[in-house]
Known about the structure:
Elements lengths: L18 E2 L5 E2 L12 E4 L6 E2 L10 H16 L5 E2 L8 E10 L2 E9 L5 E6 L3 E2 H5 L3 H28 L11 E8 L5 H12 L6 E2 L8 E11 L4 E12 L4 E12 L9 H22 L46 E2 L11
Parallel strand pairs: 4-5, 4-6, 10-11, 10-12
Antiparallel strand pairs: 1-2, 3-14, 6-7, 7-8, 7-9, 8-15, 12-13, 13-14
Helix pairs in contact: 1-3, 4-5
Amino acid sequence: MRAGVAARGLGSGGMGLVLALAACVPVPRPFAGPQTGEAARLVEPPPPRLAVPVPANALLADADARSFATDLAVALLGNEVPAQAVAAKHSDWRLVATAEMHGAQVIPRYAIMNPAGIEIAHVEGLPEPAAAWARGDSGVLQSAAEDVAPKLAAMLTSIDAAQKQNDPNSLYHRPPKVAVLGVDGAPGDGDSSLAHQMRLQLPQLGVILENDPKAADFTIGGQVRLSPAAAGNSRIEIQWQMRDASGHDLGRIVQINEVPSGTLDQYWGDVAIVVAQQAAVGMREVMEKQRHPPPGTPPPGNGTPPPGNGTATAAGARPQAAPSSEPPSSPPPSSPPSLNPAALGEPTQP
């Protein structure tokens, strides 16, 4: 932005425009300062889901089995797991619930299956009264779901972490490589200035800039839209979109503000710097969520279970119960999470 442009107070949310260049000439800075409300927002698509199909072998009537699937999905959502009580698609991780009789009690079992249908881990729930379970007692089913949900969330987090640790080429072990594709729709020199500043800002946040989009982990592109606003101003919306190497939409940074009409018709200058600084920080957060997803997010691909910790057993095997004074007909206590050792690998140190 050239010297001589007068500072004018404006902007959504009461944000002003005053900052100075080295020559002490005030210039508009519509994206400077704290971003609140609509001024900046991070928009992300939903993460991979965990499908919870209706259990076919849980010793429940069909209607009760459907209710139990819903209870499990609701309890998992309460533990930040993106679960849905739906039939699994080919790309879904899934939770398969079953149950076995032990005397007068029922032991529910929950298996986490990857998209290939391979059991990666399982855990047993607390014993439930067989009579109440058989009649589909809503309180019993809901209680069973709420009991196991935190354990399943922790297992999903461990599976995802192990998958990254076991892959020396994963983003767990190296900084991400990003290609900035460009910016479209900005007036004046905004397209080139915004793209240039984004390429300067990202490396300062530990990101490797990649010129070839095919060699990048992520690509970033920008789109600018201007529309008339009140009092002789223009509403400007800058949207940065990030995609992964497969072209999947990972998230968007949206920056919105108002400027006097014509302010950015020629040179963006210092405004482009501030816009790129703020957007780059948001994009880095999206990348970090790809490296370290929120707890309970099902990992992409087929997954790799975490290394054993001495309490896990092979999938399908039941841990030995500790000696007990209970009569033989009593069910064993709830077993610790069990992992599939066939898929285990040696973790690579970061």
